[in-house]
Design a protein that fits this description.
Elements (H helix, E strand, L loop, with lengths): L3 H14 L11 E2 L6 E2 L10 H9 L16 E4 L4 E9 L12 E13 L2 E12 L10 H23 L2
Parallel strand pairs: 4-6
Antiparallel strand pairs: 1-2, 3-4, 5-6
Length: 164
């Protein structure tokens, strides 16, 4: 049996973790970038200070690597438990890519995170640029590099194991 002080501290910590960092309202989700809890009003990157400040500093860097058009990574909520995140990055090479001209392939990935009795659905938009789209089945350029490294390592191990 737990003592009442431990129970009260656990409940207090639980209620504090479910509060919005900006306005102390009930938190509805965690930002995937800064991992802080925010309400539906402050969940978008432009509405909470850690990510909004970082996004302003990165405005010069957040441009399409092909055409130089600024991209605006975004996240929004359509309900209390359903959140959408679009980083405007190519998953295959990690560079920023624009929506209109240079996103060749676009998929969605859904991650469900349990938080107490509540579950949150984070839907990520996954993009591939013109260069990485044909290699999307292996993870783009980065995935291809991982596979080549893995196969090369196995071949080298087999070669040196059997070589006298």
């Amino acid at each position: 049996m737990e003592d009442p002080i431990t129970t009260r501290r656990r409940q207090q910590a639980l209620s504090q973790s479910r509060r919005c960092r900006e306005c102390e309202q009930e938190a509805l989700g965690r930002c995937p970038d800064c991992h802080r809890s925010f309400c539906q009003e402050h969940f978008p990157k432009q509405q909470h200070s850690p990510c909004a400040e970082r996004q302003l500093r990165l405005a010069e860097i957040q441009v399409c690597y092909v055409c130089g058009v600024p991209v605006y990574p975004d996240q929004w909520s359509i309900s209390r438990t359903s959140h959408f995140i679009d980083q405007y990055r190519c998953k295959g090479c990690g560079r920023y890519v624009c929506e209109e001209l240079h996103t060749r392939k676009k998929d969605e990935d859904v991650v469900i995170v349990r938080e107490g009795l509540r579950g949150h659905r984070y839907q990520y938009t996954i993009r591939y640029c013109d260069l990485c789209a044909p290699l999307s089945y292996v993870g783009g350029l980065k995935g291809l590099a991982r596979w080549v490294t893995l196969v090369g390592t196995v071949v080298a191990l087999v070669f040196f194991h059997f070589h006298p």
